[in-house]
Design goal:
By secondary structure, the protein is α+β, with helices and mostly antiparallel strands. It has a single domain, classed as Gcn5-related N-acetyltransferase (GNAT) (Aminopeptidase). It has 6 helices and 8 strands. An 8-stranded mixed beta sheet has the order 1-2-3-4-5-6-8-7, with helices on both faces. Helix 1 crosses helix 2. It is globular and about 40 Å long.
């Protein structure tokens, strides 16, 4: 992973998730603000621990594997997570998702974390297109994606059900050439 980024008095870094992180991740997944805009599958601690044990972070840099996850750390304290699903290595397609624990939201920490990961993905892998989906009503997440250079490509009507209601999702994508051309904003995303 790239060098740490200092922001708002906190140093933002990423590290691969480990099975020992399951209690922290499970607690966040159960917070109402974390699930406010996304349906998170109910899991037990043992299920989440077992799922995390199957992750092989090194496969990403070898162009293998399909699911990867990182903890977002602020001053070495876990504050959230980022997940990457590689849909097709052959076509260079992946989808990214992210969340911050309730007490860590609104501090601007996800933007530099995602920028670090995007920089690594586009410089060290063959990924060409990274998609992100978010509830159309999730204004903060939409703004974050746009500031990182993602372009809205459409609305996925009735994409998922949350608390008994069908919600539309906005589909965003960032292409390797967009990233290389600097289609992002802000000093904390600048490439070194």
């Amino acid at each position: 992973m790239p060098a740490a980024i200092a922001l708002s008095g906190a140093t933002i870094t990423l590290r691969p998730v480990q099975p020992a992180d399951a209690p922290c991740l499970l607690a966040w997944r159960r917070e109402p603000s974390v699930g406010r805009h996304q349906p998170l599958r109910e899991m037990t601690l043992s299920e989440l621990h077992a799922e995390l044990a199957t992750l092989r972070p090194s496969e990403l840099w070898q162009g293998e594997g399909s699911r990867f996850q990182w903890l977002v750390l602020a001053d070495r304290r876990p504050v959230g997570w980022i997940t990457l699903f590689v849909v097709s290595w052959e076509h260079g397609l992946a989808e990214i998702g992210y969340a911050l624990g309730t007490e860590h939201q609104g501090k601007g920490w996800m933007r530099p974390a995602l920028a670090q990961l995007l920089r690594e993905l586009f410089s060290r892998t063959s990924l060409y297109r990274i998609e992100a989906r978010c509830a159309c009503g999730n204004v903060a997440s939409r703004r974050l994606l746009e500031r990182l250079g993602f372009r809205e490509e459409g609305v996925l009507r009735g994409y998922f059900r949350l608390r008994g209601e069908r919600l539309d999702n906005c589909l965003y994508a960032l292409l390797r050439p967009d990233w290389a051309a600097g289609a992002f904003a802000g000093p904390e995303t600048a490439r070194s």
